[in-house]
Description:
Chain A has 134 residues and is mostly helical. Chain A has six helices and no strands.
Amino acid sequence: MRTPNVSIMYDTLAMCFNEAIEILGAGIKDAIYYHLARKHIQKLEIGAKFQEVENTLAFLFGQGAKSVMVLTLERLCEQYSLPLRLEYANSPTERLQQVKERILIDKLLPKHHRKRLDSDRYEDKLGNYAPWSD
Amino acid sequence: MLGETNLGTFCDTDPGDHSVVFFEKSEDRYTTLFEFVRKGLEIGDVVVYLTRMNEPRIVGLMGRYGIEARKSMRDGRLRILSVLFSSGGTHNPKRAITIGNLKREVSMLAREVKGRNLRIASSLPEHLQTENKTREILRLERVMLSVAGEKRVSILCAYNSRRLKRPSWFRMFPFLTTIHGKGAFISSQGSVVMDELGPPRTRSRNEHVSRRGRENENP
């Protein structure tokens, strides 16, 4: 059965957020996850609780949290092949909301998920599993 | 707001700026701190380098990054201050510079350099991180914040983000970021420059006065 688009989007958002904070440095990434865990946000819940994630970032970086938001958004748009176009909204948060709506309405799939689907189809055509899979 | 291209402009600070750089590799520490020093010397600022290392070693390192440290020191434009950390009961000579008397020392320097700006590049936080002295870092940052409040002083502090590995450091992290006005984060993945750390800046009292002054001049 196909995974619902919402959960794929949340997983992708969490993945993009992880990639974005990796640029800040490994120690800082750990510090961010530590503060998220203190606010009862686990790594898997980042996509679903993104508003709280934003608040935690604002607590850690103040105005600088916007940079992390833009980096996350940049990666998310890249995954869904959408234009970043920050000028379409008043803030990165608002643009993120627009992108999320667009993904759900147009039922878009991220690049990393499409690759997984392609390899599954290849296995189906052969009638049996590909040699590299179990 | 972000990106590697902004790293060069990050070192073009204005008086009153209190900035921070988090790095992973030691080369990145010297690239930013020495760039900050070099740009200051270039535009005629007086530069103070706070460290725990001895002077000849820093002079040698600066030489590798194209800074003529000896010449600038002779001209009175560069000072390398070795700061001593108090470590319970060890020998502490009377004239040594410690975190306790650092503010007095820097304020005196700021007064001495009449008409010129003072830049302070500090690699002390990393040394304190190595020794896991969180309280000393809090003291140092408060001193730096009060110094940055003085006219014509800009400060750049350097932290090693790899050393932020314990919960005690994680808890301190929001303080370390939000006490500074600007921040750069450099890792093997890239770099991010945050032009505004901390809460949104409110208009200062002096700013208000100067604006009113300008209005009075041109009614």
